[in-house]
Amino acid sequence: MLPYLILIPLAPLTGFLLVGLLGSMGLIDDRWSHRIAVSASALACILSIGVAVDFSGGLDDCQTLVAASPDAYELVLGDENEAARFEVTYWEWLPLGEVSLRGWDEHHTRLANLNVGWTFSVDALTIIMLLVVSFVGTLIHIYSIGYMAGEAGYYRFFCYLNLFMTMMLTLVLGGNLLVMFVGWEGVGLCSYLLIGFYYDQVFDKESGLTCADAGRKAFITNRIGDFGFLLGGLLLIVTFGSVDFSEIAGMINASSAFWYGTPLLTGIGILLFVGATGKSAQVPLYVWLPDAMAGPTPVSALIHAATMVTAGVYMLARMSALFWHAPGAMFVVAVVGCLTAVFAATMGMAQYDIKKVLAYSTVSQLGFMFLGAGVGAFVAAIFHLMTHAFFKACLFLGSGSVIARAGHSNDMRLYGGLKKWMPITFATYLVATLAITGLPLLSGFMSKDEILARSLFSTRGFFWLWVFGVIGAVMTSFYMFRSVWMTFLGENRSPEKVRENLKESPRTMTWVLVILATGAAFLGLLGIPGGVSNLVGLGDINWLEHHLHPVVAARGVVAMASHGHATEAGLAEHGPAVSEHGDVAAEHGAVGSEPGNVAAGHEGVRAGHQAEDVLREGLSVHPTMGQEWALFFLAAGVFALGLLLAFWSYGNNAARAKALEPKLTYVRRLLYRKWFVDEIYDALVLKPFWGLSRFFAGFDQRVVDGAVNFSAAATELTGQVMKLFQTGVVRHYAVWLLSGAVFLIWIMTK
Amino acid sequence: MPDAPSAALLLSAVLFSIGTFGVLTRRGAITILMSIELMLNAGNLALISVSRSLPGGGADGQVLALFVLAIAAAEAAVGLGLVIALFRLKGSIDIDLARLLRW
Fold first, then answer.
1. N or C, fewer C-beta in 10 Å, chain A?
2. Topology of B6-101 in CATH?
3. Domain ranges of chain B
């Protein structure tokens, strides 16, 4: 299927055009709208599976294809230095030709051939993302048939969904930064369109925010992040003279090309990460995601949980070569991710809107992914992205199933005891909850605890990152079980009229829930952490690690000069073994705690992949068996602690829950009002911005317009005076003429 | 006693002033036209008298004076036409009546 790669985004694009055009002309009814849209998405899914099969079957078959037109194709079979990769350039998109790049000084100014092609690239990472996006996307298309039935603008919904699939697949397939950026902006557009789908309705009654406002908020917040992303991309271009991911990675990994230095890479890394904070809703730009819940629930599940918001994590993994060489940027990523994971979880604990609970949960889980990426556990981050796509989509769709039946109310205070009416929804929601909260051996346990373990044991980890990660995990467990109790267990608190109509959702919806819940339960088996499998004596059976490692592995870090940063402190936590190496390294004059320099301490500087083995060792200090068990029980304890807290607050005693709920103590109020972050942004950013805008508006109206109006007024005044001379009496003119002549003669004869 | 060109120029200036006075003070259109003729001819007189004292015998000034005559004839034709139009419109040739073109 590899030669038909371009059909993957083209299929939903066709669906988008067909449904959009025919639907808006009224030529197809609702049934055909979803038939076209679902089959377009399903086609993309089937093609993706085909591509995955081709890719894993080895790329040898592609040799003839590549040989036939070597200009368009690029094939890397994969070795120690580079991951297996298949690239197609469909057309010369921006043939800029030769450009000169400015280096740090005039000696480094050089010429580069900057021809940006429309390139799609497939490697192990792309495969994972393709499968997740197209599979979950197709399921959610199917779910929407039931959920959106009878809604106004039915065809519009499906045509946007198809466009989203196109853009997301473009983002994932893009072989260079610009193609990725097209997808990146495209998904942002679709997100905006779909959040504002009910554009005429009020979303938040307390603040009067309409759905259209929520869409704008998302779009504008993303603009701020995208500005950083653009700057990072431009800096990347002027530094490397290329936008191609593999070329850039090659240049960074080749130690000889290290004239651009780490500070520049750190700058690029942080700027790109600013883009990720916008798209992936991290502190401080996360504020749009909870309000993005204004969109229909399938949109929340697909775009704002499973796929689009994870684009930032994907981008980081894609640029992993750069981040490996910019430890400072990685540290920022890890700290922001960890902060977000905890901060969002606190807000999630006090929300009553079920979708907002899940939204804050999404922000928090994305924080965990960035924490993983930031400590160098890119594989674990992508693993968590995968499992999160399943369990969070399942949770969202479960909440959608509830909302659709419970009189279109999101308020958990009006639910309760729904288990009786909606057994399938309850069962799938419970499975997904157990997965996200980390019931041992379900998918969330595997991925989240892999991230936490890495944040402790990776040389780029940091003890406090781990501590806060664990606190975040406890809160995750609490707020998820809180939502289960408030929604499905206990007594029903719905209004009489709603209660009479409670029943299970239609089969198109429940089947999707079952499939997603199955995935949420068992997907973790793809990436059983070495620690867990070692415990039961199975050895290393982490398929995902083997699959993805070549793409995101650190290469050539050994050649880097070390700049002191916080991982030194992180290293110090890892026991005497490492710091001993560090001391040796210091003795040899290579100051610092870079893993590469650990290698340097052993053998002196070694180049290329020889050092990589050492590097791998250096980047994950292996915990002992005892530590493994400790982590395992700690994870189980975290899960149980959250469960017990939720049970104590909401579970066994309806009277206590009732007494607790309306009692908004200061802390609860603070959390319910989301730490007043919206208000703080309003006061710190929006108000001054509006003030500035008003000032400039005043300047424009008074000074700029004033100058224009003054010249007009002056002209008019002159005219008003001068017209008095035009009396219509010929003799007066003759007098003026004569005086003029006399005046001229007087001048000339003077 | 001034010499010949000076005397002629003096006469020309006097005639021009009389003509100007007529244009500025009289209300009858015909009188104004006549005053304009007087001013034109004062100009002619100045041209011819000055050109006499120029080297080459002064053909230039005389030629210019002929042009002035031709223009004066055209001006008289147009002017009289206007006077007739004014008379048809207003029943009088008082030019103070023609003051429509004003602000």
1. C
2. Helix Hairpins (1.10.287)
3. 6-101
